[in-house]
Amino acid sequence: MPRGHFITFEGLDGSGKTTQLRRLATALEAEGHTVVTLRQPGGTALGDRIRSVLLDSRSEAALGPISPVAELTLMFADRAQAIAEVIEPALAAGHIVLCDRYTDSSEAYQGGGRQLGSQRILDLHAAVCDNLQPDLTLLLLPPIESTLHRARRRNSRSIRNTGTDENRFERESDDFYRRIYAAYQNIAAREPQRVVTIDKDDTIEAIHQIILNTVTERITIAAT
Predict the structure, then answer these.
(1) Residue 69 belongs to a domain with what CATH number?
(2) pLDDT for 64-83, tens place per residue?
(3) In the predicted model, is pLDDT for residue 169 greater than 90?
(4) DSSP class of residue 42?
(5) Could you write out the DSSP letters of every residue in 164-190?
(6) What's the pTM value of the predicted model, to 2 decimals?
(7) What's the mean pLDDT in 100-127?
């Protein structure tokens, strides 16, 4: 059986990547593909526990400050479990895997935002993930100001409506996010064959069409 396709979505919170992942999954399933979706951190029982620690803004009140290196290694523990439990079995079965964040997020958030540097993340990726790379990465990178506004507004609404608080990163400074944004730009420049950057702040449908056209082209090319 031919190996499946591994597609990741990247970008700041508020960029629209999660919405676009869901729309792409629906479109691909309508075309007869079997699609597996997951998010990082999360997507497995272990990953969901790690997510609750890393994203909840109340974690540090209960546990004390989380060091940048501890944060990074927990992200990779989540990723290793997701690869073993979800990603590799799905790819071996010929499915399309859509993942909301992957190692690029660690390079951007911990390497750039936390200033740990890219090389440490790339070395961990090679060691922990056996250097498993996506076939395609869709990087949603609209203007940073609108992205942060949407993310912070969304998380405030989520706390109000559900009591779920995944606001730990959104409390960081704008400079933190500028470093993340720059790190994403550097990744895209370094790996133009893998990373497709969508930097328009357009309608959901317009972005979806760009993504669908890109993915359809890549899948067709890979199958020939």
Answers:
(1) 3.40.50.300
(2) 789 999 999 999 999 999 99
(3) no
(4) -
(5) ----TTTTS-HHHHHHHHHHHHHHHHH
(6) 0.91
(7) 98
Beginning with the edge strand found earlier in the chain, give each strand of the sheet holding 195-198 in spatial order.
35-39, 96-100, 5-10, 136-140, 195-198
CA distance 14 to 4: 29
Nearest by Cα to 120 from 74, 72, 78, 80: 72
**Under 8 Å between Cβ of 176 and 116:** no
Mean pLDDT value across residues 121-137: 97
Alpha helices in the chain (DSSP H): 17-30, 45-55, 59-63, 68-82, 88-92, 103-106, 118-128, 144-162, 174-190, 204-223
Number of domains in the chain: 1
Residue 169, C-beta contacts closer than 8 angstroms, at least 6 positions apart: 13, 55, 109
Cα dihedral 107→198→191→25 (10° resolution): 80
Cis amide bond preceding 41, omega within 30:
yes
State the average pLDDT for the chain: 90
108, 187 contact by CB (below 8 A)? yes
Q: Which amino acid is at 170?
A: E
Quote the domain boundaries for residue 174: 5-223
Locate 172 and state its tokens.
């960081």
The β-bridge partners of 8 are 99, 137
Cα(157)–Cα(189) distance, rounded to whole angstroms? 35
Q: Residue 72 and residue 111: Cα distance in Å, rounded?
A: 9
